[in-house]
Amino acid sequence: MNTSPPLPSGFPPTRHAQTGATLIVGLVLLLVLTVVGISGMNTATMEITMAGNTQFQEDAFQLAEDGIEVAIGTRAYSTDAPRIVDWLNNGVAPDRRAVTTYQMNTPAPGSSVGELEAFHFETTSVARGPRNATAQHTQRFFVIGRSL
Questions:
Q1: What's the pLDDT tens digit per position in 91-128?
Q2: The model scores a pTM over 0.90
Q3: Nearest CA-CA partner of 92 in 54, 130, 135, 61
Q4: Distance from the first to the final alpha carbon of the chain
Q5: Which residues make Cβ contacts (< 8 Å) with residue 123, sequence separation at least 6?
Q6: Does the first or last residue of the chain, that is N or C, have fewer Cβ atoms within 10 Å of its Cβ?
Q7: How many whole angstroms separate alpha carbon 116 and alpha carbon 97?
Q8: Is 10 left (phi over 0), alpha (psi -120 to 50) or beta?
Q9: Cβ pair 131, 53 in contact under 8 A
């Protein structure tokens, strides 16, 4: 015995006429969102790796610059033969080396002829950073001194 009143016209049909289209649409949308999420994660992972590689290259660059600073700051240069500041390290592994070579003499700017000379040198520094990132820098400089 059915005690419920009849439904007015305009109401959706009863349950047995539903086909499940909402479920299928919901599952398709969930699949699309999953693919977008996985793609975003892959992109973020790649960007983190790229940023790390840039940092490692920057570390190698700074180590090479430091090798030049050490060579010049410790006055590791001479007109006799190339001077080598052998591999230095940052506490983990040897990471930078500098070689300074004498190039030539020229009259010093603003001095009398034969009184002072400019001794020209070239320092080349090679550095190894994390993940074998490498950098090589060359710097030329001169030192004013008495003529030989």
A1: 666 788 899 999 998 888 877 777 888 999 999 999 98
A2: no
A3: 130
A4: 125
A5: 68, 71, 72, 77, 98, 99, 100, 138, 139, 140, 141
A6: N
A7: 31
A8: left
A9: yes
